[in-house]
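Risk register update: the risk that structure generation would not scale has been downgraded. Supporting records follow, first protein first.
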Amino acid sequence: MTMVNFSVARGAITPSWPSLLPATSYAAEPKAEPKAWHLAAIALMCVGCVVAWRQGAFYTGGVDPVVALKALMQSAALAWAWVLAKKYGLARPLGIRSLNYLLMILAVSLIGAFAAGDLMASAVIAIRVLMMALTLMLVMRTYSAEQTLVALSFAMAIVGALSAGTGLALGGGARLSGGIPPLSPNEIALLAGVPALLLLHEGIRARVHCWHLALLVMLAGMLFLSESRTALIGAAAAAGLMLLLIRHIPIQTVIAALIAFPLLTYTLLMTPVLQNLLAREDSASLLTLNSRTISWSVVLNLPWDTWERWVGTGLSTKTIAVEGQYWEEQVFDSSWISLLAQSGIIGTAIAVLWISSVVLRVLKTANARTLFLPLLAFILVRSFMENGLIDAGVMFLAFFAISLNLERPSARISIDWDRHGTLSLSGRKAR
């Protein structure tokens, strides 16, 4: 009996998808699992330490109280996850391909930072990104993939709701902005979008309670009030994918859709809501994409014979000098342009390979496709107009969690999200 269990566990990890740790302990007799509150606390700390605590500020080196507190929170989350992994020793199978891709991108960016003479600030950010990745990996060795995803989603919802609620209480502009922490409308949209899509996925399959629906309505309201066009387009694309991928539609979902469709159609076509969103007051021009293309053109036109073109200038590069404008610097506002500036063509090519492998993997993974393909679409749509795909931010947390979930060892023991989804942090017993 022991030999059979051992071979099954080893079979979950092929040579091309190596395991972080041997899977033999996971295949042994079921062990006690840590309480769910440990996972919830780690997820809250991970999300809390990567959101903006100061609006419009970028890390350029040095230490101040905010930097120190964020570092303490991230270190505590990593240490907590490590202690749980050592104490309970469940050792669920987990691939390391995602970590390998990340390490290569970070290495290239550090080479660029060294060449640019700005190694320290970029090294600090790279260490933070690596700590976030290791925390997630340690958590997924102890908790199931679905538990980790649910915990991260609800941590995002809590932080986003706190920021939006305090922002409304303090009073703001036309768009929903944060109070505590002082998040931008786009950040609030991201924090609301991921858990909203998870709730929508379960709601379509009639696997939710009333308080889940109330939370979904609140998150959808936050997403809409943020007036983030990219997030709304991504969310609409993700919701459409869910509906296309669903195989069995419960009667409750059909009834709810028949009620909601005329209300939604009236709101979009007969009221100025859609028009106001497309031409909001703070939009300089839809054609210039809010001046994003100014910084994009500078990065895209870097000379081919410079090291900046090939290895970038490090992860601390968030803006670039521009000419011919009444301002001197411009934020990239695109994860892909940021990758080109921070890790050059080499780092960007590695990122393309990584993301392509994730997309191919989700298309081949039937038990995860209905949830993870829409989530991935939401994140990738946002990545073209917003920073953070490979950075110390919430977008990276979400993307790395999806990438880990889709690695072959994790996917093989994951639940079938189309048939047996869950919104519970209690998870399943170790197998």
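Supporting record for the second protein:
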Amino acid sequence: MSAHGDVDLGHTVAGWTGTAIAFVGLSVLALAVVTVSLPLAVMGAAVGAFAGLTTWLLHLAGWGKPTGPRPASEWPWRVRDRAARQGHPDCLGCRMAGRRTSAATAPAPSGTTTSPAPAAVAP
């Protein structure tokens, strides 16, 4: 149990890396405001965009977290998410990458068969 209680805070490699890069970008933007420098502002914004892209790519590689709570065994930040390759249900980042869009479109588990509903027969 942590100081924050028994909750999944979502600390992940993707989250920490993206936050660190974004902090650098915001620091450059702050310097741009103080020095009134347009080139520094553009560079800070570019670093911020790079932070978002890096976080998204790490999420897709399995170093992020799916939406919602995870099992307690997956809470440590160095645990890789093995389900990321197929995509997370209802995850915007996974949909943007062309992965599964929702739980309703998830493929059926292997070994199970689904049969279509019987068609209505006209009398």
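The helical segments are 13-35, 38-63, 92-96. On this basis the risk owner (M.S.) recommends closing the item.
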